[in-house]
Amino acid sequence: MKWNAWGDPALAKPLSDRILTLLTSVFGELQHVDTPDAADVVLRPSALTPDDIAALTAAVGAENFSTADADRLPRAGGKSTFDLLRRKSRDVQDAPDAVVLPATDEEVAAVLAVCVERRIAVVPFGGGTSVTGGLEPIRGDFAAVISLDLHHFDQLSKLDEVSREATLGAGLTGPAAEALLAEQGYELGHYPQSFRFATIGGFAATRSSGQDSAGFGRFDDMIRGLRVITPEGVLDLGRAPKSAAGPDLRELFSGSEGTFGIITAVRLRVHPVPAEKRHESWRFPDFATGAAALRAVTQNGTGPTVIRLSDEVETGLNLAMTDKIGGDQVSGGCIGMTVFEGTADQVNGRHETTRAALLAAGGESLGDEPALAWEHGRFDAPYLRDGLLANGALCETLETATDWGNLDRLKGAVTQALQATLQETGTGSIVMCHISHIYPTGASLYFTVIGAQRGDPIAQWQRAKNAACDAIMANGGTITHHHAVGADHRPWMDQEVGELGVRVLRAVKAAVDPTGILNPGKLIP
Ligand SMILES: Cc1cc2nc3c(=O)[nH]c(=O)nc-3n(C[C@H](O)[C@H](O)[C@H](O)COP(=O)(O)OP(=O)(O)OC[C@H]3O[C@@H](n4cnc5c(N)ncnc54)[C@H](O)[C@@H]3O)c2cc1C
Q1: Which atom of ligand 1 is nearest to the CA of 486?
Q2: What residues does the FAD-binding PCMH-type domain cover (predicted)?
């Protein structure tokens, strides 16, 4: 993964002339962006003392410890627009004081013990794809901060075909985990857009939601067990599929974002690799009609694996940027996608009942082509953001969820807040939205925002992001449906869970991490 951009450098693409023309026609002249090379970046020097280094090296071995800039820089943050803009700075950049790569639970425990004793903060690092400041190297009240990289935890340690459960190491990336399961005919079916780089531990720590959530559920729905190493001891959670033995502690540690402990292994529900797959694309006259159609599908439980709906703006921009989506068949309205998986009988049944529900709700079939094209390119869009940021545009995504009855109000309020604040910073904006995760009682809303950089783009986006978060809270949304809280959403956590809820989270933290070394400045206000 690149230190200052998304993904695999070999897949990076410069912006096409078509997109550059579109940008200047909407936003006018774009400001020049200075993009330093890695060699020009200055990191704050490591604050670890020789005794700290000796103790950490003793815990993991010299080959698994580094204070080199080349190791610290790629772990200096995640992949939000804030992170990527910070990487462009020629001022001294924050970075962890060292990178530590334990390979066993015992080594993790030893590292935590050193950090408690020597007052060093710990930021767990999975795939490095956080978009909410979850990886910011915040020292807090501590003398130094290390990045604890989980990538040695890369085993499929158990596959129980009878129970259809697999125990996977926290450091396995999405593709690595799926490859190990596929060798034995199984899959997880968890495909967030960050799939190629994010890890099993990161998915659990952030309650990730993949594009196939309609069929296979969110990642937290798949969790059957967790192994968590805390400064106070080890937790093996999940004795049975369900239990009435009090509150479910798996739920407490899912989404704990490295603040309660280090997840080293996750036991997950798996399913046989589906035998059949079918695609169908849709056009709806407007977003409200499309949303009502998706609601009918989820409330009747007709079983698509993927179902998504772009609003009018997202549909229009996709059509303007590519010839592929929808071809000549679409002008105006909103495009939707469906994918069905399972045995041949299951696919037939799921497709026919979903199709009937969408047709009855005002959908018009566009055949399989646009849905196949979407699936083919479904991990590519983030590369576009790098080109936009490098060419003087602003681009970021944010997300929330609410009940169906409140969806329109929330969408309108967030759109308006983004447009108004970006206007105040001197740029027009394109605010697009889609639904990609649906439930019988509600759905997520995923916004993509494009504007022009004017002056300091970090300050500019912070203003817009603050306004969007305020609008989310004032209009009945959750501060995050799947991106997690990190440092960026933390100021809204007291509104999300209430003052007593914050005290509950702090009490849990005090029990498992009394010195507070684990990921300070994240999640818990
Ligand atoms: C382009 C792009 C697309 C994305 N698309 C989606 C999407 O479709 N759906 C979605 O849900 N999210 C998405 N995300 C957000 C991100 O990929 C997820 O939050 C992902 O689950 C993080 O996994 P990771 O392994 O990269 O974790 P990291 O980014 O390394 O860490 C995330 C947080 O979890 C903590 N953490 C990581 N591993 C562990 C561990 N083993 N134990 C304890 N704490 C740990 C970290 O300290 C940090 O606070 C996207 C991000 C990007 C950049």
Answers
A1: 49
A2: 92-273
